[in-house]
């Protein structure tokens, strides 16, 4: 099977989903480029279809074989119209996300990272990358946070989003109910007025919330958690992804007993 027209209904559906950062009507997520395809192929997500030019099919044959997915050859012109970036390297795929549950996020020594209305997909993806790097057990994307199907989010996570258990579109009320039922202590990063980061007790089961780039953690969540701050010099505040990464490093250090 070969697709040559940018107006092909399948390619148009991919273009819309990729452009809007949402799944296709049948729940599949668009990923672009060989790196994300390889990461997805080694993860709990299921690669269902690969769209590539003949040249890309030869160049990335090993990665394609690893995915064990259906391969559809597309002309370079038609594929460029479907891709949302110029870095697709003439290969993209449709993948079915793993469906996680709350208990999946509590595996081991629970540390759940909570994104509260993080709208910048690059920041959100970086936080998920740091969550995996520093041993978090899972991630919650609260209502108002970018979707896990967002291409920029997936690229910024560099594959971590495929492996890290997560829930999305969860309300603050739902999240707080779950943490109460699971006896998780909730910490929220705040610009001022909170406990010094080093004084937080990450040795026990906990959740760490980071808020919107402009307004921070929502009042409802902040009131039901312990605020913690990261002291800085010269600058008023840190980027959300940087602040969360610093806090996760501190949590990992405490958990290692360093």
What is this structure's SSE topology?
Layout: E1 2-3, H1 9-20, E2 29-32, H2 34-41, E3 46-52, H3 54-59, H4 61-67, E4 70-74, H5 76-82, E5 91-96, E6 111-116, H6 121-133, E7 138-142, H7 151-157, H8 160-163, E8 166-170, H9 172-181, E9 185-189, E10 195-196, E11 206-211, H10 219-223, E12 226-229, H11 240-256
Parallel strand pairs: 1-4, 3-4, 6-7, 6-11, 7-8, 9-11, 9-12, 10-12
Antiparallel strand pairs: 2-5, 3-5
Helix pairs in contact: 1-5, 2-4, 6-7, 6-11
Notable traits:
258 residues, Alpha/beta knot, 2 domains, 7-stranded parallel β-sheet, 5-stranded mixed β-sheet, 12 strands, elongated
**Strand content bin:** 15-25%
CATH topology of the largest domain: Alpha/beta knot
Radius of gyration (Å): 20 Å
What is the count of structural domains? 2
Q: What's the CATH architecture of the largest domain? A: 3-Layer(aba) Sandwich
Based on Cα principal axes, name the global outline.
elongated
User: Percent range for helical residues?
Assistant: 25-40%
Order of strands across the widest beta sheet?
8-7-6-11-9-12-10
Major sheet, described briefly?
Answer: 7 strands, parallel
Low confidence ranges: none
CATH homologous superfamily classification of the largest domain: SPOUT methyltransferase, trefoil knot domain
Q: What's the level 1 CATH class of the largest domain?
A: Alpha Beta
Residue-averaged pLDDT, rounded?
A: 92
H-E order: EHEHEHHEHEEHEHHEHEEEHEH
Distance between the termini: 57 Å
Count of β-strands: 12
Number of helical runs?
A: 11
Pairing-aware structural class of the strands and helices?
alpha/beta
